[in-house]
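Q&A log
Question type: sequence-to-structure
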Amino acid sequence: MIRKFLSERRSWLLLLLVLQLLLVFVAFVDSSIPLLPILYITLLSLMICAIFLIVRYYRETRFYKGVAEWNPASGLTAFKDASSPFEQIVEEAVNQQTERYKREASRHLLLLEQEKDELLSWIHEVKTPLTAMQLMIDRMQDERLKAQLKYEWLRIHHLLDQQLHQRRIPFMKNDLYVEETELEPVVNTEIKELRSWCIQKGIGFDVSLDAGPVLTDAKWLGFILRQLLTNAVKYSEGSDIEVNSHEAKGHVVLSVKDFGRGIDPKDLPRIFDRGFTSTTAHRESAATGMGLYLAQKAAESLLIRIEAESLPGKGSTFRLIFPVSNDFSRMTGM
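Response status: OK
Response body:
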């Protein structure tokens, strides 16, 4: 380590030596300067520098040895070769720390996977009694109580559905099956699911699907539509909801328009943010702020662009702009 220590300070040592030799040379050439005192001063300076180097060597190498002996994985000491260069010591310490972080990240990822699997299993188990409850509600004779129970059942069903898809979205690309999909069956299925809620609120649907099939995954498109239709029904009362499709610039556009309370202009840029509900109705406990966020995340994987426009008191319009086949080709590199 002495050689490494001196090598790192070689330029300064050479400068010091050159200055001392220059002083002796000037005294030797100039007869007016006594040579013996200059030699004495030079020798004394070199001795002081040598003592200084020795002291600094022991102080600095003590620090290097401490770094070499430190084991970041356990916090204990493990003696290493004291002659190893400082860069190698630091590199080994960094590598050990990196390996430790990798092990911790793998452990946390495994725990998250286990938690996700347990939650998915729980959701599927809860769906069984929910299905049984639906059959029991359908057999009830009291229509008023039946409608109220249907509404509450639907709320629980949608909350569980959101949780299920929230856990699946990070791995959504493993579950995609993109094909030409007719919009009418998907739209009708989602409207049918909301029938009891719509009857209770006096809401109807005006459906006009003029565009042809779209390139998408029918299951995930149904989930996106479910969030838009649920929001439209939730914030409307006694009015129709318009669902129509058309072609624009080569893309199929599916729009969902309601005539409910609308969205405040200052809230519109934030409606797709995770957990955002509203600033005008902030105390409303029924809203979770997850529906539009999850719809946007699912739409991104399907290359669907969602646009929204709204006026307070006039209603809201959400548009799904579907990709063309070339968009998927560029994404997959085909």
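Response note: Strands lie at 179-181, 204-209, 214-216, 240-248, 251-257, 305-311, 315-321.
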